[in-house]
Design brief:
This protein has 486 residues and is an alpha/beta fold. It has helices at residues 32-43, 45-48, 51-54, 59-69, 81-92, 105-115, 132-142, 158-162, 174-182, 197-205, 218-222, 228-255, 257-260, 270-273, 278-296, 301-319, 327-347, 353-381, 396-418, 421-426, 436-453, 460-466, 468-485, and strands spanning 2-5, 18-21, 97-104, 120-124, 148-152, 167-170, 189-191. It contains 23 helices and seven strands. The protein is elongated.
């Protein structure tokens, strides 16, 4: 156990019983050890593999070892806002506040220094893990005369709450609530700072991103083979891909917790904000993957191959490749094309080479505009570039050149496709398809123009399914396709 005292002239006058506050899950809504392990896995993957060996020396030794490699930024931790406001009020009134935590002392001190409201820090020191009865013994020894008040959130805090003169909780978990009822412990105050679970789960799985997987239906639609059996197979493929995609989004968010907390929008994601625990995320991800592969087992074996390819590629992208300039956008565009290949494999529909060429250029342009919009928005806000993507603000114009060239190449490929034998066989009035060309030019030009103005969401696919003009253009293209077919 480590004690960090603050100079007397920096503390408020002693007032009443000392208030002792737990850190993990209480003052901070997340578990700092888990967050540190995830940061270690992102920063030093090989070191993270050694973590099971470090724990052989005890949990306190593990915390110390992890802390020697990575340090969380206390500025961006997901603090329980209601509790923090209360502590600041108590500090202003001169009450003695103690940060008493099982977290490693180095991290606890940095958090205390940042908040500047605690009189002293009691934390794990690499040998003693200051939780449960270890923490209780330390507090009873320190406050033997006047006693103490305590704020906690989980099962290990039960003995401390039982011996607290005025027990309080912050975001208490179900296990602790049950134990408090069983032991008839009356809680004086409860500080809840949690988002509705239904909303949190929807944000976690990124349901809106499932719109990308509609591409699985494209080969079937363009081949005009809309039998009930094939549509059913395509629907199973859509659900399998969507579940697999959500599982990989969760893995990506878990590994990006620390970086997301520094982002003005991504800091609201469930794991970064502390509204959902990493343990829950791992469970959801594993369940989704199991369901995805169960669905794939019902389809032709070729679909399973594409699903595995998608999973491996997206994990490689999340772990490293998204930080390699140009490789990231090529992979993103390839994943869109892969969805259509998977749709063709699921329904045994031949995938047109023309469609493959069109998708490569079109989605490369959309991947480019996503990176361009990120840089443009950072430049407009005047903030420092900190997303680790491998691009510089000076690359904006080059990305614009790459992306717009790819966009108009897609239009050219589509124009050539209209004159191909495939179109002649599938459409009674193929010349009507030419009406789609100006609509494609209009939409792609508009996307790039809005991105240049800083008015485009960083994800162009989400923009496409929420923008009225985009939806209108899409509806017009669908009508033209029907008119060309009849």
């Amino acid at each position: 156990m480590v004690s960090q005292a603050v100079a007397p002239d920096e503390t408020a006058a002693a007032s009443g019983r000392a208030l002792c506050v737990d850190l993990d899950g209480t003052l901070v809504k997340s578990d700092t050890l888990v967050d540190s392990l995830l940061l270690l896995a992102r920063t030093y993957p090989l070191k993270a593999l050694q973590a099971p060996l470090w724990i052989s020396g005890g949990k306190a030794a593990l915390k110390s070892k992890v802390g020697s490699f990575v340090q969380l930024d206390p500025t961006h931790l997901p603090y329980n806002r209601k509790l923090l406001e209360y502590l600041m009020e108590q500090h202003r009134e001169g009450r003695r506040l103690y940060l008493t935590t099982g977290a490693d002392a180095t991290l606890a001190r940095r958090i205390s220094d940042h908040l500047a409201i605690f009189d002293e820090v009691l934390a794990s020191d690499g040998t003693t893990n200051l939780t449960g009865h270890n923490k209780l013994g330390s507090l009873q020894q320190k406050f033997a005369a006047e006693g103490f008040d305590y704020i906690g959130n989980a099962r290990p805090d039960l003995p401390l709450l039982q011996h607290s003169a005025e027990p309080m909780t912050a975001n208490p978990d179900r296990a602790l609530r049950g134990l408090l009822r069983r032991h008839k412990v009356s809680v004086a105050r409860q500080f809840d700072d949690r988002a509705p679970m239904g909303k949190v789960l929807l944000k976690t799985i990124r349901l809106h991103q499932w719109a990308k997987n509609v591409l699985i239906f494209v080969p079937l639609l363009l081949a005009h083979m809309l039998s009930l059996r094939l549509v059913g197979q395509a629907l199973i493929a859509f659900l399998s891909f969507s579940l697999c995609a959500s599982a990989t989004y969760i893995v990506n968010d878990l590994l990006d917790i620390e970086a997301d907390r520094k982002h003005p929008k991504k800091r609201r994601r469930p794991f970064a904000s502390g509204d959902l625990s990493p343990k829950s995320g791992v469970l959801i991800s594993a369940t989704f993957l199991a369901l995805a592969f169960a669905g794939a087992a019902m389809l032709p074996i070729g679909f399973l191959g594409w699903l595995v390819t998608y999973l491996v590629t997206t994990l490689a992208y999340s772990l490293h490749l998204k930080r390699v300039m140009l490789i990231d956008v090529v992979l993103l565009s390839g994943l869109y094309t892969l969805r259509m290949l998977a749709g063709g494999a699921a329904t045994s529909v031949t995938f047109s080479p023309w469609l493959a060429a069109l998708s490569v250029f079109l989605f490369l342009s959309l991947a480019m505009v996503k990176r361009f919009a990120e840089l443009q928005n950072v430049k407009a806000s005047g903030q420092a570039l900190s997303n680790g993507r491998g691009y510089l603000l000076s690359d904006i114009e080059q990305l614009r050149s790459f992306g717009t060239a790819s966009a108009y190449a897609a239009v050219v490929v589509f124009a050539l496709y209209i004159n191909s034998p495939d179109i002649m066989d599938l459409y009674h009035h193929p010349t009507r398809m030419w009406l789609m060309t100006p609509l494609m030019i209009l939409w792609l030009s508009r996307v790039w123009l809005l991105a240049s103005r800083g008015e485009l969401d960083e994800d162009p696919v989400i923009f496409a399914v929420t923008d009225r003009m985009s939806l209108l253009i899409g509806a017009c293209i669908a009508v033209i396709a029907v008119l060309a077919a009849i």
